């Protein structure tokens, strides 16, 4: 089954060019010219990927990202203005998974999209892919989390963060280490991104949030019994 992307960009010419490249790469492309239309479309389609231009009329990309993250873990790539580091940091805090800076090559955008989708589908622990802690169960083959028997939808970054903590059980990870491992060595944001995602992850874990412990002035660790 093919991959689907919802492309949200207010400039028709840019939309057309990007769409052509994704279609040539085998993607099914849905287009929206602004945030309002995108949010309506998301109720009727379930894309594998969402590409959002930050600067749009009506509802901008940040607001769309924020609203989407209230109900969906779909991977999100933000298109940001050149040099707008604050945009990138804000986007990550809202739950975006990647960003591509304008102007960009459509080929680069397709490559980044494929790379993100590959990471989403990768199996990290193929020989012991069911990890249980408390009433929670993490399936690393399906990248799926259940708490008290109910599925909890994680964003790609939330999943990567949880898995990193579990794989380093009882080891304190600094915010800088987490940034490097989850967001990449070239990420130039600050540790607020880590704190924001830890807070969201704890909220989704609910009664099992206590497994993620804060180590004052240092970072975080996953503490407790888990089994695979």
From TrEMBL:
Domain Response regulatory: residue ranges: 4-117
Database matches in Pfam families: Response_reg, Trans_reg_C
Cellular-component GO terms for this entry: cytosol; protein-DNA complex
OmpR/PhoB-type domain mapped to chain residues: 128-224
DNA-binding region ranges: 128-224
Compartment(s) where it occurs, according to its Swiss-Prot or TrEMBL record: Cytoplasm
Gene3D superfamilies: 3.40.50.2300, 6.10.250.690, Winged helix-like DNA-binding domain superfamily/Winged helix DNA-binding domain
InterPro entries: CheY-like_superfamily, OmpR/PhoB-type_DNA-bd, Sig_transdc_resp-reg_C-effctor, Sig_transdc_resp-reg_receiver, WalR-like, WH-like_DNA-bd_sf
SMART domains: REC (SM00448), Trans_reg_C (SM00862)
Location (main, coarse): cytoplasm
Keywords: DNA-binding, Phosphoprotein, Transcription, Transcription regulation, Two-component regulatory system
Family annotation (SUPFAM superfamilies): C-terminal effector domain of the bipartite response regulators, CheY-like
UniProt record, GO biological process: regulation of DNA-templated transcription
Residues recorded with modification 4-aspartylphosphate: 53
PANTHER family linked: ALKALINE PHOSPHATASE SYNTHESIS TRANSCRIPTIONAL REGULATORY PROTEIN PHOP, REGULATOR OF RPOS
Protein name: PhoB family transcriptional regulator
Protein species of origin: Rossellomorea marisflavi
Taxonomy of the source species: Bacteria, Bacillati, Bacillota, Bacilli, Bacillales
């Amino acid at each position: 089954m093919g991959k689907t992307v919802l492309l949200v960009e207010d400039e028709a010419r840019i939309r057309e060019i990007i769409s052509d490249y994704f279609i040539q790469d085998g993607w099914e492309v849905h287009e929206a010219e602004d945030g309002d239309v995108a949010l309506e479309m998301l109720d009727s389609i379930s894309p594998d990927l969402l590409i959002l231009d930050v600067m749009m009329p009506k509802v901008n990309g940040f607001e769309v990202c924020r609203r989407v993250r209230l109900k969906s873990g779909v991977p999100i790539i933000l298109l940001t203005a050149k040099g707008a580091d604050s945009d990138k940091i804000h986007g990550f805090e809202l739950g975006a998974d990647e960003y591509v800076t304008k102007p960009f090559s459509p080929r680069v955008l397709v490559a980044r999209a494929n790379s993100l989708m590959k990471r989403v589908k990768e199996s990290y622990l193929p020989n012991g892919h069911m990890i249980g802690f408390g009433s929670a169960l993490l399936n690393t083959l399906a990248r799926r989390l259940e708490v008290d028997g109910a599925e909890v939808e994680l964003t790609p970054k939330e999943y990567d963060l949880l898995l990193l903590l579990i794989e380093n059980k009882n080891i304190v990870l600094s915010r800088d280490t987490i940034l490097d491992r989850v967001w990449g060595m070239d990420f130039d944001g600050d540790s607020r991104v880590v704190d924001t995602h830890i807070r969201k992850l704890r909220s989704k874990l609910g009664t099992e949030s206590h497994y993620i412990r804060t180590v004052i002035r240092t970072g975080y660790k996953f503490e407790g019994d888990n089994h695979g």
